[in-house]
Amino acid sequence: MSAKAELVRQISAAAFKDAIDLMACLAVLREGESLVVPYALKAANAALAATIVQKALLQRVLMTVERAFAPVKHKSDRHARAAFEYLSDPNIFEEVAKAGSRKQLEQARATWRTYDQDARRRRLRHYRDKVVAHAGERDPAIPVPLVSELRNYAMGTADALARLAHGSGAVELRLKVQTDAYDKSAKAFWSVWQRKI
Description:
Blueprint: H1 3-35, H2 38-43, H3 47-69, H4 80-87, H5 90-99, H6 102-116, H7 120-132, H8 147-168, H9 175-190
C-alpha cells in the first residue's frame, strides 16, 4: 500500500474514534434532557453543575465537528478533511477502496460533501471561532446556531467518519455496537435525577 493510502487508513481509524466520541457526547446530552428532573437538580443544588456539564459537552461536540471539517494547512494535518482530500485522487481512492469497501467509501465522500457544503457549517464555524475557541466579536449577520442544528450536524459527521473508517478498511467495528455502552452509561449517569414513581 502506498504511503498516502496508508495515511488515509490511519486518519480513518482516528476519525472512527471521533465518531464514537461524538455519539457518546450526544448520548449524555440526550439522556440528560430526557431523564433530568429540573426541580430535583435545583433541590440538590446541582443545577449549575448540570448546566456546566451540558455546555462542556456541546462545546466538545462543536470542536470535534469543526476539527473534522477544518482546512488542511500543513502536511502534518491528520484530521478527516486531509483523508478526503487524498481520496480525491482516483489512484489513492482505488487503492484504499480495495482494502475496504468501495460502497462505504463512496457513501462517506457523498455524506462528507453534503455536510461540508451545508449552510449550517458557516454558523457553526463562526460560533466556534468567535465564542468557543477564541474570544472574538461575533458577526451579527451570522445567526447563532441552534443546539438542534449542532446535534443533527454532529450525527451526520459521525456517520461520514464511520463510513470513512469502514470504507478504508481501517475499522471493522460498527458504530452502534461501540456506542451502545455509552448510551447505557449516559442513562446511568443521569438516572439519579429521574423521577421515582
